[in-house]
């Protein structure tokens, strides 16, 4: 069959990185829709000539607006889950009379769920589509939170947190990949992870207030989490009801085969580089099992001699910094480029970490940790953007899921 190429002049959202276009006035050759090798969206390097992906927008088609709102709400819950652990750790430790080492098992357990999500997320997309993910992920968290809210023995808490980790791992991979396929990725991912940061900001405030002001048990916070995730099931299912496994396969597999892409994604150097980067970043800074976000409250109480409530608020300040940083710097990063921006953010973050460590004053430490959150906030979204730019769309879910799982492993360590 003869192939033709249509050339039009139009502004470019984002080009195939293998064929950069230096000017917005340069002609952009589109895929020939009569050639099946060029019809598949997101396939780099297929067909002939320069190819530019057709990106949907957050507001077109209209259903994307509702889907984006549902995903934003899901990441708000995701952030509340992650942000609550640091504030709850001292009370869990005291309630069960545990050592530091044993208490840290609540951080290791979600990693097991994340690992399972990384292995099977792409396959679940093929069988059940995004609709299945929108139902399965929050449902697993609802079950986990209800069990924890009954105040079970500590081994049961550790075991059931793996189910919550599974739900969060599926959410992380699926919705980062979906938003990464839209136009204006930097801004949207900045807002998405800003909502995550907002959830992590308010969770220590709510949980600490419930414990210190209302004199409730630490486990009662999970009644609230179970209710929020039940709402997430309803909103996600309604927004993605038409996104079946068949539709996902048709769009993301050029040959229509239900073949998982996890193995192929692991063959890509980009996947391993991003995974290694997140192993360091997430492990040291901002995950449910983080050394800073997870243990900051204990540090402020025991080393900086702060009161329990004010120490809990330092975790809120840290997550607030992440929230503001992701929203504001999410608009700055694309203007100066991800590579230069991330390098600059990391340098400033090192300075903030040194101030936090070397100046033994409660107020100074609280301010330094908030600024640290501000500058490390955009790093995770920037890593996701790198994956979506450098890999074909059919590998996004598998690659992002694997990278996030490795990050969770670093957090557990």
Which descriptors apply to this entry?
mainly alpha, 413 residues
In whole angstroms, the N-to-C terminal distance is 56 Å
Helix content: over 70%
Q: What's the count of strands?
A: 2
N-to-C SSE series? EEHHHHHHHHHHHHHHHH
Biggest beta-sheet profile: 2 strands, antiparallel
- Strand content is under 5%
**Unreliable spans:** 1-53, 286-291
Individual helix count: 16
Give the C-alpha Rg. 22 Å
Class from helix and strand fractions? mainly alpha
Outline type: globular
What is the average of the pLDDT values?
A: 80
Strand order of the largest sheet: 1-2
Please provide a written account of the structure:
This protein has 413 residues and is mainly α. Helices cover 72% and strands 1% of the residues. It is built from 16 helices and 2 strands. It has a two-stranded antiparallel ribbon with strand order 1-2. Helix 2 runs antiparallel to helix 5 and helix 4 crosses helix 16. The longest helix has 45 residues. The N and C termini lie far apart (56 Å). The N terminus is likely disordered.
Q: Secondary-structure map with pairings?
A:
Layout (H helix, E strand, L loop, with lengths): L6 E2 L19 E2 L6 H4 L23 H34 L3 H4 L1 H45 L4 H27 L4 H28 L8 H19 L5 H8 L9 H5 L2 H16 L6 H12 L5 H29 L1 H21 L3 H15 L2 H12 L5 H17 L1
Helix pairs in contact: 2-5, 2-6, 2-7, 2-11, 4-5, 4-7, 4-8, 4-16, 5-16, 6-12, 6-15, 10-15, 10-16, 11-12, 12-13, 12-14, 13-14
């Amino acid at each position: 069959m003869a192939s033709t190429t249509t050339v039009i002049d139009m502004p470019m959202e984002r080009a195939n990185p293998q064929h950069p276009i230096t000017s917005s006035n340069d002609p952009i050759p589109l895929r020939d829709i009569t050639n099946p090798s060029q019809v598949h969206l997101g396939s780099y390097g297929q067909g002939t000539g320069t190819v530019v992906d057709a990106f949907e927008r957050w507001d077109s088609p209209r259903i994307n607006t509702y889907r984006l709102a549902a995903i934003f709400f899901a990441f708000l819950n995701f952030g509340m889950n992650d942000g609550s652990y640091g504030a709850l750790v001292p009370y869990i430790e005291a309630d069960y009379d545990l050592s530091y080492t044993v208490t840290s098992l609540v951080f290791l357990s979600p990693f097991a769920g994340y690992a399972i999500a990384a292995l099977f997320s792409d396959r679940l997309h093929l069988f059940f589509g995004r609709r299945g993910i929108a139902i399965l992920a929050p449902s697993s968290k609802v079950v986990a939170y209800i069990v924890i809210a009954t105040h079970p023995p500590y081994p049961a808490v550790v075991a059931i947190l793996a189910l919550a980790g599974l739900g969060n791992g599926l959410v992380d991979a699926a919705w980062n990949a979906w938003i990464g396929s839209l136009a204006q990725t930097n801004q949207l991912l900045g807002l998405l992870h800003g909502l995550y940061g907002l959830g992590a900001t308010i969770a220590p405030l709510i949980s600490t207030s419930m414990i210190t002001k209302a004199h409730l048990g630490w486990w009662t916070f999970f009644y609230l989490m179970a209710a929020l995730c039940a709402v997430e099931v309803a909103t996600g299912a309604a927004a993605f009801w038409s996104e079946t496994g068949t539709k996902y396969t048709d769009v993301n597999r050029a040959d229509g085969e239900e073949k998982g892409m996890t193995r192929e994604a692991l063959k890509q150097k980009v996947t391993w580089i991003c995974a290694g980067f997140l192993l360091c970043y997430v492990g040291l800074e901002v995950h449910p099992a983080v050394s800073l976000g997870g243990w900051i409250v204990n540090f402020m109480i025991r080393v900086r001699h702060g009161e329990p409530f004010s120490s809990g608020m330092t975790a809120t300040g840290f997550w607030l910094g992440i929230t503001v940083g992701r929203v504001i710097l999410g608009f700055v990063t694309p203007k100066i480029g991800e590579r230069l921006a991330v390098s600059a953010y990391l340098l400033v973050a090192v300075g903030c970490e040194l101030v936090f460590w070397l100046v033994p004053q409660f107020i100074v430490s609280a301010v330094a940790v908030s600024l640290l959150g501000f500058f490390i906030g955009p790093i995770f979204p920037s890593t996701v953007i790198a994956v979506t730019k450098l890999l074909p769309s059919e590998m996004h879910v598998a690659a992002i899921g694997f990278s996030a799982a490795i990050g969770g492993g670093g957090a557990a360590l």
